[in-house]
Design a protein that fits this description.
Its main location: membrane. The chain is an alpha+beta fold. It has eight helices and nine strands. It has a three-stranded antiparallel β-sheet, with helices on one face. A hairpin with a 3-residue loop joins strand 2 and strand 3. The protein is globular, with a radius of gyration of 19 Å.
């Protein structure tokens, strides 16, 4: 793309699928309106909007973080991975300071450029979930990304900066495991049931020892980093800790 008097710059285009509804069009334009408010090195930059329903953003050479990590499994140092997490945290702090709640923070919604700088993207929750049904769980209030969502948000549909912090803890785990799927082969129903038990423990001060709360830790993950993840996801219960080798 070339702007008048400017040099060529690579961009990414995001469009609606053919046959979109009026609501989808409104949501799409609302996403662009939200993105236009942000100016931060770890938030995807909006370059413009085309009236034929097209969002133009900066181009991120390495694509989504989850795919990037799986492609380069085991190739980065701990310092590099911490740098990735620090950048994501900076972007999310910026959003929180503006009073914005992302609600769908996950490695798939973080983009990586050629310098390994990570930027938070995808500010249209409902449309993303429609395109990725395996990442969603349907409740009475609609679809939510169950594996990345805080228990109180699942149970009561209460989203906040705190629920984004939970999601960030899951993203930290994704980064340190090089793009492993959270909760591995558990079904969305199993994940929801686990979260329900966590809610019960928090409110009733009980200890939960259900076998499905076993926390798997990558062998190279230091205890301090693991504890940081635990703080983010509010793991205040007794769990079985296993080492993934």
């Amino acid at each position: 793309m070339r702007l008048p008097g400017k040099r060529d710059i690579p961009v990414a285009l995001k469009t609606l699928k053919a046959g979109y509804s009026d609501k989808q069009r409104r949501d799409f334009l609302a996403e662009a309106s939200i993105m236009a408010q942000f100016d931060h090195p770890n938030i995807i930059h909006l370059e413009g909007v085309v009236t034929r329903i097209m969002i133009i953003t900066e181009y991120m050479e390495n694509g989504s973080l989850d795919s990037f990590l799986r492609k380069h499994d085991g190739q980065f140092t701990i310092i590099q991975l911490v740098g990735v997490m620090r950048g994501i945290a900076a972007g999310m702090t910026y959003l929180a300071d503006l009073g914005y709640i992302h609600r769908d923070l996950a490695a798939r919604n973080i983009l990586v450029n050629s310098n390994m700088v990570c930027k938070v993207s995808d500010f249209g929750l409902s449309r993303v979930l429609e395109d990725d049904p395996d990442a969603a769980y349907t409740t009475s209030g609609g679809k939510i990304p169950i594996r990345w969502t805080a228990p109180e948000a699942i149970a009561y549909r209460k989203f906040s900066s705190s629920s984004d912090v939970w999601s960030y803890g899951v993203v930290m785990w994704e980064v340190m495991s090089y793009g492993e799927r959270p909760y591995w082969n558990l079904t969305n129903r199993d994940v929801k049931d686990t979260h329900t038990h966590i809610q019960y423990i928090v409110h009733a001060n009980h200890t939960y020892t259900h076998k499905k709360t076993c926390v798997m830790i990558p062998a190279y993950l230091s205890l301090s980093l693991f504890l940081c993840v635990c703080v983010c996801v509010c793991v205040c219960v007794c769990v079985c800790v296993c080492v993934c080798v």
